[in-house]
Amino acid sequence: MGFSMKLSLVLFFACSLFVQKTLAVVICENLPKHLCSFAIASSGKRCVLENHKNTHEKICKTSEVVVEKLSGYIETDQCVNACGVCRESIGVSSDAFLSSEFTARLCSPACYQNCLNIVDLFFNLAASEGDVICENLPTNLCSFAIASSGKRCVLENHKNTQGKTCKTSEVVVEKLSGYIETDQCVKACGVCRESVGISSDVFLSSEFTAHLCCPACYHNCPNIVDLFFNLAAGEGVSLPALCKNQEENHRSMLAILSHGGVTLVQ
Questions:
Q1: What pTM, to 2 d.p., does this model score?
Q2: Is the dihedral of CA 86, 90, 94, 100 positive or negative?
Q3: So which residues are the signal peptide here (predicted)?
């Protein structure tokens, strides 16, 4: 290979590395408007689309909102579509939460579980508003939520349609408000976000009480435990006693199995 050919290859790779490094730096002011909203600059600050002061054109600017653990990021088309957001939106506003259609898209598994950047943005917007209103919650976040007023949210069947609606109950929770239950606790306690109303019938299921009394739920999910503690008390049952009995029965069964007390029927 001749010297000129080697020199050309060296220059080619050097230029390629320079271009890649340049592209890796995200500067809001350099972004086209159709990529601005939901982008994060390499500085870690969010990009925001604004109307130019002297013209009607839109320009991309660097905001003062800093994102933790994410920088130099441009949101994907998949997440924009899944979360129901618009790249042409001006500024960042919590008014979007007034639309039940938007909150349904934002809380859908396709968005909520896969689009951390957009979810983080609206999570902080919602937190800054500070109000959880049951009637504004989508049905898949209603059950086990607590309004900012301190009253529990309850899922009800709509009177005139086959759908469900989220309503504010008269059950007041002490020392907790403005709270939406986590997916971890819903799973650990064996409850369902789509359950209608609040009923003590669940205690008829030994499988449910096993979930509720397991350490992952009983020691880590005070909201759900408090709900069923009061439901059990209303029926004259002590939840701590019920869980203790559940644990003793489990130990007795383990003791029987360990001593060969169970005979398999052929």
A1: 0.49
A2: negative
A3: 1-24
